[in-house]
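User: Could you go from structure to sequence for me? I need the amino acid at each position, not a summary. Structure tokens:
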């Protein structure tokens, strides 16, 4: 019986030891899992901090851009006001900005030989296109554009070009452009 009791005590001791090792192993596994989760938590906190910093940077940039847009809108409004003021002050010339010729094509497009006022000669000329500042012709050597101011007086008259009116119109256009520049400079200075 002694041996039987020793055997039982020994069995209980071994069973207790087995339970103790299983408990220790589970505690070690739990400790490793806690360490791993703590590492992941630190990583997530670091990434969250980066995202928060990026969010603040974006908000600052949006505010800066909105301020720039407001500033540009103010400049546009000032320029529009200056342009409207200049347009009100501009002379009410119905011919302002229009070419100094009638854009009507001639009844015939065959012009024969043309000698321009600068001495060039074009033979067998045919009108291809009538433009606001001259005519495009095909001639024996190719195609060219001749400005109304260079045409002989009879062709200037045929195409409705008046040199005196063109000079006056050019002067009015130059004056208008100068007024536009001055108004824009004043608006930019404000």
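Assistant: Here is the amino acid at each position, in order:
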């Amino acid at each position: 019986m002694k041996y039987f009791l020793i055997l039982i005590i020994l069995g209980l001791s071994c069973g207790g030891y087995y339970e103790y090792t299983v408990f220790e192993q589970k505690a070690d596994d739990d400790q490793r899992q806690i360490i791993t989760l703590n590492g992941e938590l630190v990583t997530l906190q670091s990434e969250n901090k980066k995202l928060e910093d990026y969010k603040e940077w974006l908000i600052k940039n949006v505010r800066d851009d909105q301020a720039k847009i407001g500033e540009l809108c103010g400049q546009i409004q000032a320029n529009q006001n200056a342009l409207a003021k200049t347009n009100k002050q501009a002379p009410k010339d119905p011919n302002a900005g229009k070419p100094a010729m009638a854009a009507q094509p001639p009844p015939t497009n065959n012009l024969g030989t043309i000698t321009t006022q600068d001495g060039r000669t074009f033979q067998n000329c045919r009108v291809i296109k009538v433009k606001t500042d001259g005519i495009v012709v095909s001639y024996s050597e190719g195609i060219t554009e001749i400005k109304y101011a260079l045409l002989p007086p009879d062709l200037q008259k045929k195409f409705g070009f008046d040199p005196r009116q063109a000079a006056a119109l050019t002067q009015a256009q130059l004056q208008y452009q100068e007024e536009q520049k001055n108004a824009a400079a004043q608006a930019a200075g404000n």
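One structural detail worth keeping in mind: The helical segments are 2-89, 153-158, 163-189.
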